[in-house]
């Protein structure tokens, strides 16, 4: 079984949620655009027909099946490599949480691009300032309250208790990203179960090795989680 992950080579972005799960599960994959460049990604996207992915990230399985959407990809990989629940009802709940994570990631992007993704941040700064205020004050607590409650259900440290899933590696990335984006705001919040989950993912040997490798991309100003000091709380 072979996997080819296609995502932009210079930003962690949505592709990082898939990388983290693959690395945690020690599943081999090719990070295609990291190896071949962004032009190869554009060319590969253009060459696909039929039910092709709308945008990266997408995953090619055994040079045959091509699937897009982060939550969808993670659900497929979890089923194949046992980092889901293993029963349909619970796996559906995990997918629901993964879709909630997709929602907060989309809102994160809209903070610095509140008008249009086709405009530079500097062209929409006034709108971004207001969007950041609303996101910090209302949306972050609403989402993190939701995830904190999910972690409480089985007592932690992971959503299913002692067994990590794709939801836990994704929550790790969300917390890391929010800390990078809004360090002042995040220091004022207290979510002990999310912090325990983050630390527990960090302590997985495979994740620790990945984070220390050159495969792990740093957050930067071209990704989804961006740090603009003027958008952080005082």
Could you characterize the architecture of this molecule?
- The protein is built from ten helices and four strands.
- It has 234 residues and is mostly helical.
- It has two domains: 3-81, Glutaredoxin (3-Layer(aba) Sandwich); 88-204, Up-down Bundle (Glutathione S-transferase Yfyf (Class Pi), Chain A, domain 2).
- It has a four-stranded mixed beta sheet.
- 37% of the residues are buried.
Briefly characterize the structure.
This protein has helices at residues 15-24, 32-36, 38-47, 70-81, 88-112, 125-153, 166-181, 183-187, 192-202, 205-211; strands at residues 3-6, 30-31, 58-61, 65-68. It has 234 residues and is mostly helical.
Question: What order do the helices and strands come in, and which of them pair?
Answer:
Layout lengths: L2 E4 L8 H10 L5 E2 H5 L1 H10 L10 E4 L3 E4 L1 H12 L6 H25 L12 H29 L12 H16 L1 H5 L4 H11 L2 H7 L23
Parallel strand pairs: 1-2
Antiparallel strand pairs: 1-3, 3-4
Helix pairs in contact: 1-4, 1-7, 4-5, 5-6, 5-7, 6-9, 7-9
Number of strands: 4
Distance between the termini: 50 Å
CATH class of the largest domain: Mainly Alpha
Taking pLDDT < 50 over at least 5 consecutive residues as the criterion, the unreliable ranges are: none
Number of helices: 10
Largest sheet: 4 strands, mixed
**Class of secondary structure makeup:** mainly alpha
Our estimate of the beta-strand percent is 5-15%
Radius of gyration: 18 Å
How would you classify the quaternary structure?
Answer: single chain
Identify the overall geometry. globular
CATH fold-level label of the largest domain: Glutathione S-transferase Yfyf (Class Pi), Chain A, domain 2
């Amino acid at each position: 079984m072979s996997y080819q992950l296609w995502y932009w080579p210079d930003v962690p972005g949505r592709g990082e949620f898939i990388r983290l799960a693959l690395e945690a599960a020690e599943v081999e994959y090719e990070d295609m655009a990291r190896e071949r460049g962004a032009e190869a990604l554009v060319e590969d996207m253009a060459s696909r027909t039929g039910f092709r992915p709308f945008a990266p990230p997408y995953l090619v399985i055994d040079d045959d099946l091509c699937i897009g959407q982060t939550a969808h990809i993670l659900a497929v990989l979890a089923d194949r490599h046992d980092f889901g629940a293993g029963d349909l009802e619970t796996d559906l709940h995990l997918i629901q949480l993964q879709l909630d994570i997709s929602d907060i990631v989309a809102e994160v992007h809209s903070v610095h691009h509140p008008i249009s993704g086709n405009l530079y941040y500097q062209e929409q700064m006034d709108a971004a300032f207001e969007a950041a205020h609303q996101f910090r004050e209302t949306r972050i607590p609403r989402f993190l309250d939701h995830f904190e409650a999910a972690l409480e259900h089985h007592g932690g440290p992971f959503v299913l208790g002692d067994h990590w899933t794709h939801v836990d590696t994704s929550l790790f990335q969300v917390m890391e990203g929010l800390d990078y984006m809004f360090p002042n705001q995040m220091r004022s919040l207290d979510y002990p179960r999310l912090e325990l989950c983050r630390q527990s993912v960090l302590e997985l040997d495979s994740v620790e090795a990945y984070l220390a490798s050159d495969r792990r991309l740093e957050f930067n100003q071209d990704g989804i989680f961006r740090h603009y000091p003027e958008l952080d709380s005082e």
